[in-house]
Specification:
This protein has 245 residues and is of the alpha+beta class. 34% of the residues lie in helices and 25% in strands. A four-stranded mixed sheet has the order 2-1-4-5. Strands 6-7-3-8 form a four-stranded antiparallel sheet. The longest helix has 21 residues. The chain is globular, with a radius of gyration of 20 Å.
């Protein structure tokens, strides 16, 4: 079974060059239509983080700091069973020639990838809470938590070390391992002070989202894939603390 592969541009890299992602059309190949989800996806929101920080401050009497870790190429770290690989072949054109290749890990564009990663993602949360005693939260492959100011650095590195042991040494890069106060979480600059909690979209994210919305308004076109990605980026706006904008 062959799925056509195509490329999509996902913004720009720090050096200004386009960020390209290869996507496999597993819907066209028929694989997605044969996938029956067995569980409901579960992610944590900004509401969850606010509640966690409130409980943390009440229990410790200290204003918490934040930590976050981001998994690199999450889907590609979930291996496929060898007897399932017959359904994961892809076809693409390379320098005028049609090429085919077999996946050995979950593909981007496969419905099964979403649910298989969700299971792995939840397992990492469970292990971090039980073994490392970190009150970790998760949004897909983004992990974040509140910690004591003196422990945020150590907690971030401890979680990263556990993930690298399980998913490979490149699972979390040093550049995506951050801690402190304030800190960007899910596109928002989150800051805690003695008065309360302050959340504000980062300048870069705001410009990016407004640009995408303006482009859709100008062209009067919003593709399903772009709409889904924009909805995910603006998911924070559905939080209770923002009156579910």
């Amino acid at each position: 079974i062959l799925a056509p592969r195509f490329a999509v541009v996902q913004g720009l890299k720090p050096d200004g060059t386009p960020k390209i992602r290869a996507v496999d059309d597993e819907t066209r190949s028929g694989c997605n239509g044969c996938c029956q989800p067995c569980e409901k996806l579960s992610v944590d929101s900004i509401d969850s983080l606010v509640s966690l920080m409130q409980m943390f401050a009440k229990a410790t009497g200290v204003l918490p700091h934040l930590m976050k870790d981001d998994i690199n190429a999450a889907y590609r770290r979930v291996p496929l069973k060898p007897d399932h690989r017959w359904a994961t072949w892809v076809a693409f054109v390379h320098h005028g020639r049609v090429m085919v290749a077999e996946h050995k890990a979950m593909a981007f564009g496969s419905l099964a990838s979403v649910y298989n990663w969700d299971r792995i993602g939840e397992l990492l949360c469970f292990l971090a809470r039980r073994l490392l005693h970190i009150p970790i939260l998760r949004y897909v492959d983004d992990y974040f938590a509140s910690e004591l100011p003196a422990c945020a650095d150590h907690a971030a590195h401890a979680f990263a070390r556990m993930v690298r042991l399980l998913l490979g040494p490149t699972a979390i890069s040093e550049s995506k391992l951050l801690w402190g106060m304030p800190l960007e979480i899910l596109g928002l600059d989150v800051e805690v002070n003695p008065v309360g909690i302050k959340c504000k979209p980062t300048v870069a994210k705001s410009e990016k989202w407004l640009g995408q919305i303006q482009q859709a308004l100008d062209s009067k076109t919003l593709l399903a894939g772009h709409a889904s990605k924009l909805a995910g980026a603006l998911q924070w706006a559905t939080a209770h603390m923002f009156d579910r904008l």
